[in-house]
Amino acid sequence: MSDADDLLARTRAVLPSWLAIYYQEPIEIERGEGRHVWDTDGTRYLDFFGGILTTMTAHALPEVTKAVADQAGRIIHSSTLYLNRPMVELAEQIAAVSDLPDAKVFLTTSGTEANDTALLLASSLRRSNQILALRNSYHGRSFSTVAITGNRTWSPTSLSPFQVYYVHGGQQYRSPYAGLSDGEYIAACVADLNEVLDQAGGDVAALIAEPIQGVGGFTSGPDGLLGAFAEVLRERGILWISDEVQTGWGRTGEHFWGWQAHGARPDIVTFAKGVGNGLSMGGVIARAEVMDCLGANSISTFGGSPLTSAGALANLRHLLDHDLQGNAARHGPTLLAGLRAHGSPIVGDVRGKGLMIGVELVRPGTGSPGEPAPELANAVLEACKRRGLLVGKGGLHGNALRIAPPLSLTAEEAEEGLATLVAAIEEVTP
């Protein structure tokens, strides 16, 4: 038995069976540098998934590793019961780039916990457990976030602390409104929202929405949709939570936050993944009146720890100093245009913004939008791996490729990744 086979057997023996692992022959990633990683056999891969959009700037970014090492040499942990300079400095930086007025920040250890906190704030302030969410959405794996996830493949229980209403607007490709223009699509979704709100009876606490749905397969409605929703919500006093766990920090290229494409400000923003560049970091941003609404005592044992805050602050400063948002805007179109120009019969849709690109695979000859082809997505995943490229997949049917390299991607790496992906698609096309 090889070392990889032995480690896989040990993994299956001691960890839950429901933990998904990529590839027929899984790989152990041993180290990374820049946009590349190496497995234990020494094989190098161009990383176009970044640990599920978490390695935002680069693998082994020197500024982050130094900040973590320096902080670890002083103190690793203290909790929020004590003054914590790295946590405050990080929160100040996040508030400054938040584009929210009178912003306060609460740091957590994950996006799941961030969304938990946002739901707690909204339901407490509004004195309601009614939540609006988008169809095909994903917001985490805790009891409360599973309950509002609109993608059944990631929601293992129907039990819920909330009464949840799902509205249209998370994606256009397979929507019943797919044939409409953007303006008509927005109008239809707003009409649906109003109908759902009338049925709910006016006691809804919040709408939570990803500007681009991550696990859902990098799907979205048109720009302006969430702003149109916000007009309806504010007439009724309902809060808007923007889940920026995957779209935040400039990944879309055109904006720093995904919500900025929609012409209105949310009441609460959640974030995680990329800000820590691999460190366990998430959080919530909200106006002071919203953030301070809780009446009970609270602390966070691990959220905003000195170690993760120091690393995240170094990572965020690097991103801002090197205009990685602009870099995403420069190189994302190379991938989008190249994939769209390829015209494969198994590619039903190419979508996304910046360095957040989805490719939906379909069975050829099955019309429009085409039958989902999860078997082809798995085959492309394997073919990319054999060629030295790591990509992700997702979507309700598991048939969408997810492409999200670190934001420091170079022009040469964008061309290399595109060529590899096209070759992989051609290889598996029937």
Keywords:
17% strand; single chain; alpha/beta; 4-stranded mixed sheet; 37% helix; 430 residues; globular
Plain-language structure description:
- The chain has 430 residues and is α/β, with parallel strands linked by helices.
- It has helices at residues 3-14, 50-53, 62-72, 85-97, 111-126, 143-147, 182-200, 225-235, 288-291, 306-321, 324-342, 374-386, 411-428; strands at residues 29-33, 36-39, 44-47, 103-108, 130-134, 163-167, 204-209, 239-243, 268-271, 282-287, 347-353, 356-361, 389-390, 392-394, 400-403.
- The strands form three sheets. Strands 4-10-9-8-7-5-6 form a seven-stranded mixed sheet, sandwiched between helices.
- Strand 1 (29-33) and strand 2 (36-39) form a beta hairpin.
- It starts with a helix and ends with a helix.
- The mean pLDDT is 96.
Query: Which percent band covers the strand fraction?
Result: 15-25%
Mean pLDDT: 96
N-to-C span: 34 Å
Strand order of the largest sheet: 4-10-9-8-7-5-6
Helix coverage percent of residues?
25-40%
Shape: globular
Evaluate the radius of gyration: 21 Å
Q: Which stretches are poorly predicted, pLDDT < 50 over at least 5 residues?
A: none
Structural class: alpha/beta
Run of helices and strands: HEEEHHHEHEHEHEHEEEHHHEEHEEEH
Largest sheet properties:
7 strands, mixed
Number of strands: 15
Number of helices: 13
